[in-house]
Amino acid sequence: MSNTAVLEKLSSNRAFGGELAKYKFKSAALGGLDTNFNLFLPGKASGGNVPVLVYLAGLTCTEDNGAQKGSFLGPAAKEGIAILFPDTSPRGAGIPGEDDSWDFGTGAGFYINATKPEWSKHYNMRTHVLFELPQVLEAAGLPLDFKRQSIFGHSMGGHGALSLYLSSSKQYRSASAFAPISNPVNAPWGKKAFDGYLQGGSDEAREQYDSTELISKYKDTVHILVDYGTEDNFYKNGQLLPENFLKAARLAGFDEMQVRVREQEGYDHSYYFISTFGEDHIHFHANFLKA
């Protein structure tokens, strides 16, 4: 993966004594398309490289949703942690069917690498998040310490955070998720995405992209926090399946110190829910990022 991409700063806003900046670059992982991301740098960044927390947003979202509505920046500033907000998919690949539905294609990259030929040139969000963005940011000389990384996300992004954490050889120190698609091979959203992007469909996805399958075979220490709301309609209709993930984690021998799944009474799927527990998640990751 080339790390010679040139970053173009599109905007900058002062926030909580630090800076929230939007950048653009041509992404090799995404087939040469322009892609945007937001980066929050705390004020303490002037004192040396800071740890990085990656936030993956959900279906239909962009790099802006978490930055603007997650209530993450204040707590991250206090902890001296940077937050990286990637986009949720390539934009403008021009693939037939790319914009036909809200839960597949544009805004719905699912944080996987596509293997169907029509999608595989551009839809490589796994490579983009895991490798390309850290390389591009390091090459740009930004004050980030990618030896201290953690990851979190919401819904489709919660799926991405958990699956990348459990399949990426300790790249991240911890993972957390708000209302994640926890067992996507058994959820309508996951089946649609895997059947659309992957030549082997859900069978191909099990080994690398399904968090419930991954935790059941994981052999090392983990640090995972999951929150979901009891009034989340997507929980009620079987898209999220956090109980499957929790059961698999317990059967694999992970106790509540390693895998904590919290049912939040009365909360839904919205950013009101996320912003309520956002500070909890920042503090959770700070325990490991600053250790």
- CATH class equals Alpha Beta
Overall structural domain count? 1
Q: H/E series, N to C?
A: EEEEHHEHHEHEHHHEHHEH
Note the gap between the termini: 30 Å
The CATH topology corresponds to Rossmann fold
The neighbouring-strand order within the major sheet is 1-2-3-5-4-6-7-8-9
Q: CATH superfamily membership, which one?
A: Alpha/Beta hydrolase fold, catalytic domain
Radius of gyration: 18 Å
Tally of alpha and pi helices: 11
Instruction: Find the count of extended strands (DSSP E, 2+ residues).
Output: 9
- Mean pLDDT score: 96
Low-confidence spans: none
Tell me the overall shape.
globular
Organism: Auriscalpium vulgare
Protein name: Carbohydrate esterase family 1 protein
How would you describe this protein?
With 291 residues, this protein is of the alpha/beta class. It has a single domain, classed as Rossmann fold (3-Layer(aba) Sandwich). The protein contains 11 helices and 9 strands. A 9-stranded mixed beta sheet has the order 1-2-3-5-4-6-7-8-9, sandwiched between helices. Strand 6, helix 5 and strand 7 form a beta-alpha-beta unit. The chain is globular.
